[in-house]
Write a structure and sequence with these properties.
This is APC family permease. Keywords: Membrane, Transmembrane, Transmembrane helix. It is found in: Membrane. By secondary structure, the chain is α/β, with parallel strands linked by helices. It is built from 24 helices and 5 strands. It has a 5-stranded parallel β-sheet, with helices on both faces. Helix 21 links the parallel strand 2 and strand 3. The relative contact order is 0.13.
């Protein structure tokens, strides 16, 4: 039943030879890997206004110069990451750049920041998408968290079906969103030119504002820079591109930068022109669309596509997180399970882990986007800074042709990224202070995992001088619940392995049943030792595991191996298995991960 449900949701398994068919062309890659950056247009400008409105509505004109500053930062990042793509064509982004040029700890700091950032990408995108839905339908506000969780589950299933299939589906909403915002910006600008938008709707640029401070402007700039999260995703996901990967990735990065610049500057200008002030119950994009078109079909088209791309922006995390996890796992800094491809050739363990952590964050923050964005943004500007600094070291060390120009580009990118990062820490310390706790913990955990893998590898390596300890014999324990063909099958299997000793264990709940079973066993299997355990509290697991502990302790002293054979019978219908083998399944679950203990089941298949 589980297998049938899995096939329905995920699809049929793909052959390893079909991996090449799962690569992305530029059109699909732009939709998949740029959706995070493009979607931030829906909340990046709003974050600027949220800070400025604390002074007065007259201060909202400062959003224009702040927006110009964000565009300058965007240009620096696009040029910098284009160089990273060609310098590291196998992907890995900030993690690989930092590790190779700044050292292991810098690489782990960048990698850990990006892992957290991609988790926050999903949480922020889904939360923002839910906000867009509830802005259009206010009656859904009380169900924000539930809607967000359902959306995470839906997009997780879509990604488990494979990157090509998910890209084919998700490309349409992304391009519809781009079309919707371009129409909105063009119509809004047209209304401004024709005089529909009057100067009385906003304060003129340059209007003196009492109470405005450099600290507040820097805080607004840092908030607006959250629109640049996701710019690094393409450099992490180069292996997902069709050949030539670096060339296609760089073109996709340039297209993303151009689109982001147009959409971001358009929304910032229209918000200023209309005199839009942020509201808790309605997004800035919703207010702009409402004033431009009214609450007609175009308004709902814009809100619908905005909600879709905010939800689907999470797909950037689903595309980049598993690939970054693969790089860390290959270096043995996280579990090796992240390197395993699933049925549809995607890194399923990374996808599922990302979904679980995102749901936990959504529940913990109750789906409030503004509480997540500061952590989200600061998490990405740390690897931004480390990546640009790493490239500086690379150019100085290698001095390739034209390295002065490359050095200059990365130097500008490093300085701006470092400045924005400092602004975040200074102006939003109350919101981003958890970074100082969880990032060192993540790096420490990486080192502990690496140390564990190295210690295990050292012990498993056959070139070691340490002699192996000989096994002197084997003791087999067979839990039995009666005298049946299932138990007989297990006994025959145990005898075929020629162990030194077979011990049948029966757990009785009353003395009379215990005595009767001993007499039957003596007649049926006189050559097999029977141990009966009396359970005062009608528990099978507790007395059985206590007995196995005792036998295992004595066996280890004599270098004997202990094996537990659990009888099971397999009905014709798979779903009936759990109805008849509850005790067997429980015993196996309790014993499966015990050290120095072999646990296996001996199946007996029913014929009818």
């Amino acid at each position: 039943m589980f297998s049938a449900l899995k096939r329905l949701l995920i699809g049929q398994p793909l052959k390893s030879a079909e991996l090449g068919e799962q690569k992305l062309n530029k059109t699909k890659a732009l939709a998949i890997l740029s959706s995070d950056a493009l979607s931030s247009v829906a909340y990046g400008p709003e974050q600027i206004l949220i800070v400025l409105i604390t002074i007065s509505t007259a201060a909202l004109w400062y959003s224009i110069p702040i927006g110009v500053g964000v565009l300058i930062l965007l240009l620096a990042l696009i040029l910098s990451y284009r160089q990273i793509i060609f310098a590291y064509p196998h992907g890995g982004g900030a993690y690989v750049v930092s590790k190779e040029n700044l050292g292991v700890n810098a690489g782990l700091l960048a990698g850990g920041s990006l892992l957290v950032d991609y988790i926050l990408t999903v949480a922020v995108s889904i939360s923002a998408g839910t906000d867009a839905i509830t802005s259009a339908f206010p009656s859904l506000h009380p169900y924000n968290v539930n809607i967000a969780i359902l959306l995470v589950v839906a997009i997780t299933i879509l990604n488990l079906r494979g990157i090509t299939e998910s890209a084919s589906i998700l490309a349409y909403p992304v391009y519809l969103f781009i079309l919707a915002l371009i129409i909105l910006i063009c119509v809004g600008l047209y209304k401004g030119v024709t005089g529909t938008v009057t100067p009385e709707m906003h304060a003129p640029i340059g209007t003196p504002v009492a109470g405005i401070t450099l600290f507040l402007l820097l805080k607004a700039f840092a908030s607006g820079s959250s629109a640049l999260t996701g710019v690094e995703a393409i450099s992490n996901a180069i292996p997902n591109f069709k050949d030539p990967g670096p060339k296609n990735a760089s073109k996709t990065l340039a297209a993303m930068g151009l689109l982001l610049a147009i959409l971001f500057s358009g929304i910032v200008y229209l918000a200023y022109a209309y005199g839009i002030a942020p509201k808790a119950e309605e997004t800035v994009v919703s207010q702009i669309a409402s004033q431009t078109f009214g609450r007609n079909y175009m308004y709902y088209f814009i809100q619908g596509t905005t909600a879709l791309i905010l939800v689907l922006a999470a797909n950037t995390g689903y595309s980049a997180f598993p690939l970054l996890a693969v790089n860390l796992a290959r270096d043995k800094y996280i579990a090796r399970m992240f390197t395993i491809r699933g049925d549809r050739l995607g890194y399923s363990n990374g996808i599922i882990f990302l979904a679980i952590m995102s749901i936990i964050l959504i529940i913990a923050f109750k789906g409030r986007t503004e509480h997540l964005i500061p952590l989200y943004a600061v998490g990405v500007f740390i690897p931004f800074t480390l990546a640009q600094t790493g490239m500086l070291v690379k150019w100085v060390r290698e001095k390739p042709k034209g390295w002065i120009v490359k050095l200059t580009i990365n130097l500008i990118g490093a300085l701006i990224s470092f400045t924005v990062m400092l602004i975040f820490f200074i102006t939003k310390l109350g919101q981003v202070w958890p970074v100082f706790i969880f990032l060192p913990l993540i790096v420490y955990t990486f080192h502990k995992i690496k140390k564990h893998y190295e210690a295990v590898s050292e012990q498993l390596r056959i070139t070691t001088c340490e002699p192996s300890i000989p096994i002197k014999g084997n003791v087999m324990i067979v839990p039995v619940a009666g005298i049946t063909h299932v138990v007989e099958n297990s006994m025959n299997y145990a005898k075929s392995l020629a162990p030194d000793q077979i011990i049948a264990v029966y757990v009785a709940f009353d003395r009379e049943a215990e005595k009767q079973f001993q007499e039957k066993w003596e007649c049926w299997q006189p050559d097999v030792r029977l141990v009966t355990l009396h359970s005062h509290y009608r528990s099978i697991i507790q007395p059985l595991t206590k007995f196995i502990d005792t036998v295992e302790h004595k066996a280890n002293e004599s270098n004997f191996r202990v094996t537990v054979l659990i009888p099971q019978f397999i009905p014709k219908r798979n779903w009936q298995h759990i109805l008849h083998n509850q005790s067997s399944l429980l015993i196996r679950a309790f014993l499966l991960y015990r050290r120095d203990l072999i646990v296996t089941t001996v199946p007996y298949h029913l014929k009818k």
